[in-house]
Write a structure and sequence with these properties.
ABC transporter transmembrane region fold; alpha/beta; 594 residues; 10 strands; Rossmann fold
Length: 594
């Protein structure tokens, strides 16, 4: 990149960060009264903290040297008043900044989580879950330091620096200029530190996200890792990612180790210069010794905020890197939105129609489905069969409007799905996926997931309808049993039965079963066939199955091949035609008999 390009990129980066800081300020707006009180307390605390060095000088010159106990008493009282004000103001400031900070960050977490809920399914196929978790944990934690500590440090240190400089000039302008002589060196060093540390702190956010993502993925797939004895490989890979994270953190450590001791050195040099020059001035009677003592005390007060502001820059860099990641996530737009003027889908009869539908994932590459035209009458069960990759699940996702077709239309009761609200569609749609995913909680809570207001009787009725009631009743706590994370306390077949019951409880008008019996054994499958018939009765259903025994009674079977409809008909009609379905059925029968 050319120099002009780098400059322009830097300008755009600063503009982007300014915009994000404004967005962060919006989070504080609901608490502006407390923010104002916090700044008032900060101002009082800073003023009170600046008083003691000046009072110490007055105590020496007006009280100790002159032997004036009354003046010394007045200074002592003023000192105690300043200490009391400082304590009270710091208490109020500390309480308010953390009160506001915690609520603002809780609002941000809620905002990010709500935004994640609104993003399309395609977004999650492009992004690692662990990275998204890192945004809500590690990055918000970095913002916590910026909001809770950084804001206070910025204003407190700035006020302290300005106040100290003003007092130094008031006490003795010449000595003040001696102190200020180190400023050009300090400014140059701070600029170099800022440039060098900027990329380092951005990299730390990226590396910790990578560590979190790998940790989440490995823990989710721990059974596979253990089954294939790949623990050493995963430990090695995690160690590599951990080392990369440590190395980028060490870059920031080395920068801090070079910069902050340098500030301390400049402070010592300035103190030595003041002692040398100020001592000669005291000896010559040009200034009083109390003034010199105040000056020496204020020099430390002068350099402390400079160092704190420099340290704040590290917090700022980490916070801004986190802010970039968080608001970059918030800037993500859903792939699918309700169209302008989208209407509520009325209670549907259940006719599903595909009109010349073509679709490819990402909009590029070979179409997953191509020129599909198909009509499913209300209340009919249609089975989609075909080889892996034939387009079965894609058609189901288009009906659920997880994606929009690249061309053609998907209609329900004559309504183009692009022109109805997502909520009104999904509220009448039930999906049972291949893996019966359950949430932590009780069996009853999982069955009532799609219908939160369902009573115990309705939950039990849904379970009975699909043949799940018997095994649930046999469990120690029945419907109150905790299923564990992802339903880990239940077998695969039990999880799937609970997923069937969940769909039944929601009472959907349209039902999609995506290889939903693949995890159910033959005995269990036979046991729930009656329940499934009751579940499908009166509803339009799209059933995707490799186990062809489950779809022999379907009203129609549609065979897909390379994203196109190869043939369709009833089980008997397709066997008689001796086409692709007959070959699939013969292959399945041989495998089932083996």
């Amino acid at each position: 990149m050319t120099r002009a390009g780098r400059i322009w990129a830097a300008v755009r980066g600063e503009r982007g960060r300014t915009r994000k800081l404004r967005q962060l300020a919006v989070l504080l707006r609901p608490y502006r009264t407390r923010v104002a009180a916090m700044f008032a307390a900060l101002l009082v605390a800073t003023a009170a903290a600046l008083a003691p060095p000046y009072l110490a000088g007055r105590a020496i010159d007006d009280g100790i040297q002159d032997g004036d106990t009354r003046a010394l008493t007045v200074v002592l009282i003023a000192f105690l008043v300043a200490a009391g004000l400082n304590w009270a103001a710091l208490y109020i400031q500390t309480y308010l900044v953390n009160w506001v900070g915690q609520r603002a960050l809780a609002d941000l977490r809620t905002r990010v989580f709500s935004h994640l809920q609104s993003l399309s399914i395609g977004f999650y196929s492009r992004n690692k879950t662990g990275v998204l978790i890192s945004r809500l944990t590690n990055d918000v934690q970095a913002l916590d330091h910026l909001v809770s500590d950084g804001v206070v440090t910025l204003f407190s240190s700035s006020l302290t620096l300005i106040g100290t400089a003003a007092i130094l000039l008031f006490l003795d302008a010449e000595l003040a200029l001696v102190t200020f002589a180190v400023f050009p060196i300090l400014a140059a060093g701070s600029l170099l530190f800022r440039i060098a540390s900027s990329d380092a702190y951005r990299l730390t956010r990226e590396k910790i996200a990578a560590v979190t993502a790998y940790l989440q993925e490995t823990l989710s797939g721990v059974r596979v890792v253990r089954a294939f004895a790949q623990e050493p490989r995963h430990v090695s890979r995690f160690g590599q990612l951990n080392d990369e994270h440590r190395e980028v953190n060490m870059r920031t450590v080395r920068l801090n180790a070079a910069y902050f001791p340098g500030v301390e050195l400049l402070s010592a040099v300035a103190t030595a210069a003041i002692l040398l020059y100020g001592g000669s001035q005291v000896s010559a009677g040009a200034i009083e010794i109390g003034v010199l003592v105040s000056f020496i005390l204020y020099v430390q007060t002068f350099f402390d905020p400079i160092q704190q502001l420099s340290q704040l820059y590290t917090t700022y860099q980490a916070g801004m890197a986190a802010l970039d990641k968080i608001f970059g996530l918030l800037d993500e737009e859903p792939d699918l939105r309700d169209a302008a003027g989208a209407v509520e889908l009325p209670r549907v009869r259940g006719e599903v129609r595909f009109e010349d539908v073509s679709f490819s994932y990402g909009g590029t590459g070979a179409p997953a489905v191509r020129d599909v035209s198909l009509t499913v009458p209300p209340g009919q069960t249609v089975a989609l069969v075909g080889a892996t990759g034939a387009g079965k699940s894609t058609l189901a996702k288009l009906v659920a409007r997880f994606y929009d077709p690249d061309s053609g239309r998907v209609l329900i009761d004559g309504h183009d799905l692009r022109h109805v609200t997502e909520h009104s569609l999904r509220s009448q749609l039930g999906v049972v996926p291949q893996e019966g995913f359950l949430f932590s909680g009780t069996v009853a809570e999982n069955i009532a997931f799609g219908r939160p207001g369902a009573g115990q009787g309705e939950v039990e009725a849904a379970a009975r309808a699909v043949g799940a009631h018997e095994f649930i009743e046999r469990m120690p706590e029945g419907y109150g049993m905790q299923v564990g994370e992802r339903g880990g306390h239940l077998s695969a077949g039990q999880r799937q039965l609970v997923a069937f019951a969940r769909a039944a409880a929601a009472d959907p008008r349209l039902l999609i079963l995506d290889e939903a019996t693949s995890n159910v054994d033959v005995h269990t499958e036979a046991r729930i066939e009656h329940g499934l018939r009751r579940l499908l009765a009166g509803r339009t259903a799209i059933v995707i199955a490799h186990r062809l025994s489950t779809i022999r009674d379907a009203g129609r079977i549609v065979v897909l091949d390379s994203g196109q409809v190869a043939e369709q008909g009833t089980h008997d009609e397709l066997l008689e035609a001796d086409g692709p379905y007959a070959r699939l059925y013969r292959d399945w029968s041989r495998q089932a008999a083996a």
